[in-house]
Amino acid sequence: MTLVDDDGPERGGDDLFAAEYVLGVLTAEERQIASRRIDGDAAFARLVDAWEAHFSPLAVAYPGTEPPIRVKEAIGRRLFASQPRAGLWSSLAFWRGLAAAAIAALAIYIALPFINPPLQQPQLVASLAAEGSDVRYLVVYDAAHHEVGLSHVSGERASGKDFELWVIVGKNAPVSMGVIPAGKAAHVAVSPAVQQKLAQGAVLAVSLEPSGGSPTGQPTGPVVAAGDLKSI
Hints:
There is one protein chain. A hairpin with a 6-residue loop joins strand 4 (about 160-170) and strand 5. Helix 1 packs across helix 3 and helix 2 crosses helix 6. The strands form two sheets. A five-stranded antiparallel sheet has the order 6-3-2-1-9, covered by helices on one side. It is globular. It is about 35% helix and about 25% strand. The protein is α+β, with helices and mostly antiparallel strands. The chain has two domains: about 15-110, no CATH class; about 125-230, Immunoglobulin-like (Sandwich).
């Protein structure tokens, strides 16, 4: 099994970097890099637009909802307390970032409707992809219900093969989380032993295995998608 160890823009190329920007799972430093590239790199800006367009149709079936006034006030304080209003209102990167955050929240809510954790539970998300592979998954860990929800974005498994999900912590050997059910949205139950491993920084990976999963307890086929768990 080969995993990409690099973090940041190079992992998975510009397409993945743009997707993670739209999902809102980049670090603050990476978001700044992405924002600067949006303003100065037309090709990268088109990738961001494409990912935003990919998720925006999901909102059609959901009517708008007026948020509570306390939520508006909290957002206003966070956005405008320490920055000049004029600069924000005229910043293309600001408006793209705000739109990207909204689309990311909507995408996760719609793509994985079974998730409804208590507010105090942290949300862990990951964008899984790999260089040279068209397989992409968006993942949310629901700690309240001990489930991982996967939204299948692209890529197909070969006939007679299955995708298997693994978690890797540091330099430890991969631990199987089970075969990923076919379909656009899938749930994978998380055992108590694996729950302890699912934390920010852990790597989730998808390998291509014989039907029914790896016969050895370790990945036997190529890794077709991988990504770090991040807290939101």
